[in-house]
Design brief:
single chain; 196 residues; alpha+beta; NADH Oxidase; five-stranded antiparallel β-sheet; 9 helices; globular; NADP; flavoprotein; oxidoreductase
């Protein structure tokens, strides 16, 4: 990995990519498997990989999700071909003997305060959610990440009886260019970064 990506790829992933508010098209189950197969390679702390993804695609699943959505997110989410619930597993460390086998990493987390477990799970599942957005763009899909929903309702509908909690949602599909706003400004390097 010594060559930089060409400008067209950087445009697709970052510069020309947008958050869409309306979607069309269809997404095959094969594409969703391909998407996850890219996401899983993104780095996380001690390979904890706490994200758990629910690809809400069927009408029945959307009807379970609907009551949790804020009014402003309801219509666009119900119309999206797929909605991804990006969740995090508070028992992520149970998988560490497999995911991080060269040392006893599970013991690092056993008995940890819930606050620490939450920080690790939330931080790293958020990273994995960002990888999902970039992987979707790399596969030619558009995205609409959002947090306007009731996490308790999503957790009850999709994760009841588990240690998984919802983090954020991502609508997937072919974005309608008419649904986007003018690009908002970004901070310049000197406002957001420094080199020491």
């Amino acid at each position: 990995m010594t060559a930089a990506l060409p400008d067209a790829a950087l445009d697709q992933l970052f510069r020309a990519a947008r958050t869409y508010n309306a979607f069309g098209g269809e997404i095959s189950d094969q594409t969703l498997h391909q998407l996850y197969d890219l996401v899983k390679f993104g780095p996380t702390e001690a390979n904890t990989t706490p994200a758990r993804f629910v690809f809400v695609k069927s009408q029945a699943a959307k009807e379970k999700l609907g009551p949790a959505l804020s009014e402003g997110n309801f219509a666009k989410t119900m119309a999206a071909p797929v909605v991804v619930i990006v969740g995090y597993d508070m028992r992520f460390h149970d998988k560490l003997p497999y995911l991080f086998p060269h040392t006893d990493a599970k013991s690092w987390f056993e008995g940890s305060p819930e606050e620490r477990m939450y920080r690790v799970a939330l931080r790293n599942s958020s990273l994995q959610g960002a990888y999902l957005i970039l992987a979707a763009r790399a596969l030619g899909l558009d995205t609409g990440p959002m947090s306007g929903f009731d996490t308790d309702k999503v957790d009850e509908a999709f994760f009841k009886g588990t240690a998984i909690r919802s983090n954020f949602l991502v609508n997937l599909g072919q974005g309608d260019p008419a649904s986007i706003f003018a690009r908002s400004p970004r901070l310049g390097f000197d406002e957001a970064a420094r080199i020491e």
